[in-house]
Design goal:
By secondary structure, this protein is an alpha+beta fold. It contains 19 helices and 39 strands. The strands form 10 sheets. The protein has a 7-stranded mixed beta sheet, sandwiched between helices. The longest helix has 18 residues. The relative contact order is 0.07.
Length: about 775
């Protein structure tokens, strides 16, 4: 899914993140950025509008003198250009979409030598269309106007990987909703039709298979003017990966990108009598838009008229009924098809389209109407058509899902103690409505939220995993660590086995290609037995991913795998414990569907480190192969990491769902020390600290630990607050500090004095402490 920064910025009110901050937010919240770039890279300082001052003809060459904001230049061209016309000039140093860099050229002709100091650009050379024709600017375009903005190139583009269960993120509107919810902002709904102001005109629509088509909305637009789309729309669509055809087809594609709902425009005068949604008959044929005639098997969902098919539902239209330069009246389709029907047909026909990709993920009831209204508005604006009321056909309206969830259950799943107020604030930002005590209504566009675990996951993403403390109770069966020799890794594996992990034994040799996914630090084998086993692995998880991939292919379930083994890093062989979890859990009849998650892994690792009696902490970090990363420290020394693997890594193993990994070098556990519980009372003090939403609680936690505060036994967050009184983009975290002594009762005055020292040290580090 490609997203333009400026389009997203315009879709969210009061949005103020930079393109780079937005990229970080995408990745932090589980939307993987597969690529990111500035569209005018290599152009910005070398491009400008130009006006032709004079033209000299020499054979087929035109020696053109132009005036730009940079000054006067001469270019040599064979393109059609007239004096006083305005074009786009690229001077020396400009980089074309092909990668070619413009330089001065010297051309000799019949004893004369001409110098070309740049070039007049075509649309194809700038990567804004497939047309290899000179760009000619409007007469009123000024030489100091922003040419990059006119060409839609003064922007950043993100290519996002969208997981199959998030169909709502296959459109700009869904991405805007998601980002706005994290920033506590509102979205701007695009301009669309007011249905009440439109006239009604009838046209028969018949659904013969309601299992395949839940809702079908047709809209008639009369007296359209078929023409080329405005330049801004053509350029934008090409940048986003769409072919531009004409204004009507381009609008349906733009709305599909904008809303996430595929549309199809038919020539109304080519539809005989009525529109029918039905299944195909065996060996029925259809000549598709790609000019390929396809013979259909039985039971493919079709759109047809009385005589013949006019589209393969949700995939591709028929050629004869498509929009052409002679079209006068349009029938606009917006429908909700059963995703399994579309997926099956796409697979049988070996045909993937932008439309089928979206339908296969599963669309929703609301998008049908929103997209139809939006497209109708644009067709009136850019095709001058008269738009009529929609004809809406369905058997039964799909009801919004309702889920029972209590605050205590959510806190129990996450190991948190968030308040009812905070929970409702997060759920409202997603669009979830509270109907009654513990009963919530899920909006249509969040069909992926099926149970309380999904609600807990949304809360986790909004709170931030680094701010969630693991409150798992660790039941230690072995109450004393014996002094005899033992292997710490065996102890770790024995501890993890009852938690559902399977111990794997894999080869320590892997392919160089797989090793490079994790780092360039690995050991090559001099005489490998094959190219698939030609280097010594640098991480145990690289081998475990092969096992996970095989497990998925065999039974479609995910699993929890661990392995203790040797790896080669930093020019030395070391012992390491690798752990990966991911995919669907094996479900018993009394359990709900659930997938393995990052907080499950973090809880297991925290429990293991507690069991080994380590003095440990997690710190926010980054690694190239991880989308999110926490480094694990023991006694101040980094010993490993935990995080979610990037989609680009998982693609190499043919894994299509999130996978979470941990790799750690274990040290010998410390002897447990038992002491009597203090008979003196503890004193608790709370302080509230204002952080930017982009700051991590882990950084603040680390700073407090480094202070080595006397008599401070423990500290932990008890509340998070966001509101206008602390500034947009900020959050206030309340931390409870627990003081105590084994020798005496602490005085309130000395605790208050220590508390002020803590506040002063925090303020010296530029933290804002709220004064109560």
């Amino acid at each position: 899914m490609k997203i333009l920064y400026k389009e997203l910025k315009n879709a969210i009110l009061e949005f103020n993140l930079s393109p780079y901050e937005l990229k970080e937010l995408f990745e932090e919240k589980g939307i993987e950025v597969e690529s990111f770039r500035y569209l005018a890279d290599g152009l910005k300082e070398h491009i400008s509008p130009a006006i032709v001052e004079s033209i000299e003809i020499d054979g087929n060459l035109k020696i053109v003198k132009i005036r730009t904001k940079f000054g006067y230049f001469q270019v040599i061209t064979t393109a059609q250009i007239d004096i006083y016309e305005k074009a786009v000039f690229l001077r020396e140093g400009a980089k074309l979409s092909s990668g070619e860099v413009i330089s001065k050229k010297y051309i000799k002709r019949q004893g004369r030598e001409y110098v070309s100091e740049g070039m007049l650009a075509s649309e194809k050379e700038l990567g804004i269309s497939n047309l290899d024709r000179l760009i000619k600017l409007p007469e009123n375009f000024k030489l100091d106007d922003n040419i990059l903005e006119y060409l839609q190139l003064d922007d950043y583009i993100y290519e996002l990987y969208i997981f199959p269960n998030r169909a709502d993120l296959m459109g700009l509107l869904g991405i805007a909703r998601e980002i706005a919810s994290y920033l506590n902002l509102n979205i701007k709904i695009p301009d669309m039709l007011d249905e009440d102001e439109l006239e009604h005109i009838g046209f028969p629509i018949e659904i013969l298979d309601y299992d395949g088509c839940y809702r079908y909305m047709g809209r008639i637009i009369k007296d359209v003017k078929i023409k080329q789309s405005p330049d801004f729309l053509r350029y934008k669509l090409h940048i986003l990966g769409f072919n531009t055809i004409n204004n009507v087809v381009d609008i349906t594609n733009f709305v599909m990108w904008e809303i996430g709902q595929p549309l199809h425009a038919f020539d109304l005068d080519k539809i005989y009598k009525k529109v029918i949604v039905r299944k195909s008959r065996e060996k029925e044929k259809i000549l598709c838009l790609d000019q390929i005639e396809r013979e259909l098997p039985e039971d493919v969902l079709l759109i047809s008229d009385v005589n013949k098919p006019i589209a393969i539902a949700g995939i591709i239209g028929e050629l004869e009924s498509s929009i052409s330069e002679n079209t006068k009246n349009v029938f606009l389709e917006s429908a909700l098809f059963n995703k399994s029907y579309i997926s099956k047909a796409s697979r049988i026909l070996k045909l993937k389209t932008q439309s089928s990709i979206r339908f296969e993920k599963g669309l929703n009831w609301d998008f049908v109407e929103i997209a139809s209204k939006r497209a109708g508005y644009l067709l009136n604006k850019y095709a001058n058509g008269k738009v009529y009321k929609a004809i809406d056909v369905y058997s039964k309206k799909i009801e919004k899902r309702k889920i029972y969830a209590s605050l205590d259950e959510v806190n129990s799943i996450l190991g948190t103690d968030i308040t009812e107020e905070k929970l409702l604030e997060i759920l409202r930002s997603i669009g979830i409505k509270k109907l009654s005590e513990n009963l919530y209504e899920i909006p249509y566009h969040r069909d992926d939220i099926e149970n309380i675990y999904d609600i807990a996951e949304e809360v986790m993403k909004h709170v931030g995993i680094e701010n969630i403390n693991s409150n798992y109770e660790v039941k230690i069966l072995n109450t004393a660590i014996e002094s005899k020799r033992y292997n710490v890794y065996s102890t770790a594996i024995d501890f993890l086995l009852p938690r559902g992990y399977y111990e794997a034994k894999t080869y320590s040799l892997i392919s160089e290609k797989k090793a490079k996914l994790f780092s360039n630090n690995y050991l090559k084998v001099l005489n490998p037995i094959s190219t698939e086993m030609n280097v010594y692995r640098n991480y145990v998880i690289s081998s475990l991913l092969e096992s996970l991939s095989l497990n998925i292919r065999r039974n479609s379930y995910g699993t929890k795998l661990m392995e203790y083994g040797s790896v080669y890093r930093n020019s030395m062989e070391i012992e390491s414990l690798g752990i990966i979890i991911g995919g669907k859990k094996i479900r018993w009849y009394f359990e709900s569907n659930e997938e393995h998650s990052i907080y499950e892994l973090k809880g297991d690792i925290s429990a293991l480190l507690e069991y080994l009696n380590y003095n440990y902490e997690f710190k926010v970090s980054s690694r190239d192969f991880l989308r999110t990363c926490l480094d694990i420290y023991v006694d101040g020394k980094i010993v490993g990491f935990i995080g979610e693997l990037r989609r680009s890594i998982l693609k190499e193993y043919d894994i299509k769902f999130p996978v979470f990994a941990c790799e750690i070098e274990l040290i010998e556990p410390k002897q447990s020390i038992y002491k009597e519980i203090s008979k003196y009372p503890r004193i608790e003090k709370d302080i509230s600290i204002i952080l930017s939403k982009n700051d991590y609680y882990a950084s603040l936690e680390g700073l407090i630990r480094e202070m080595h505060i006397p008599h401070l036994l423990d500290f932990y967050p008890i509340d998070v607050y966001e509101g206008e009184n602390i500034g947009i983009g900020n959050r206030s975290i309340t931390i409870r500090l627990v003081f105590g002594s084994d020798e005496r009762t602490l005085k309130d005055e000395e605790v208050n004095y220590t508390l002020m020292e803590i506040i002063n040290k925090l303020e010296n580090k530029n933290y804002r402490v709220r004064r109560m």
